[in-house]
Amino acid sequence: MAKPDFDDIFMELAVNLAKRSHCIKKHVGAVLTKETRIISIGYNGPPPGTHNCDEEFPEHGCSRDSKGSCSLALHAEQNAILYAVKNNASVEGSTLYVTLAPCLACARIIFSMGIAKVVFLFSYAEYKGLKEDEGLAFLRKFGVEVEKYEKEIEFQDVLI
Length: 160
Known about the structure:
31% of the residues lie in helices and 18% in strands. By secondary structure, the protein is α/β, with parallel strands linked by helices. Strands 2-1-3-4-5 form a five-stranded mixed beta sheet, with helices on both faces. Helix 4 (104-112) packs parallel to helix 6. The longest helix has 13 residues, at 6-18.
């Protein structure tokens, strides 16, 4: 039996983590790794102790900010980074696997934290109807390796 690549394992885990999201618009998962070890995981949603959009606001979701995004939610990559730092794990030189390419704000955090590589499954620009992935352009400009995950993954019960 052939053993799966770690890239496959980590991206499949990110897809499965996306299923934990309580967002009614988009499910996103993230896995932060160093070499073959998982440092942290995350998925998009509001901070602990606030609310779960799909439970409290099942028809419309939570309120939107001026850009039309959820006013409370943290992005999957933010949650993964915050959890790692909260638990004193170093993220410098790590690789981030994420189901949706980072937005510009997340890209700034990724770069600032010293994350060396981002592997993404889907384009943020395509999802948002933008002409380019500003987050990916930012990361590339400042030397963070960016790679699109090209293999097929089976999706069930997830808004990806």
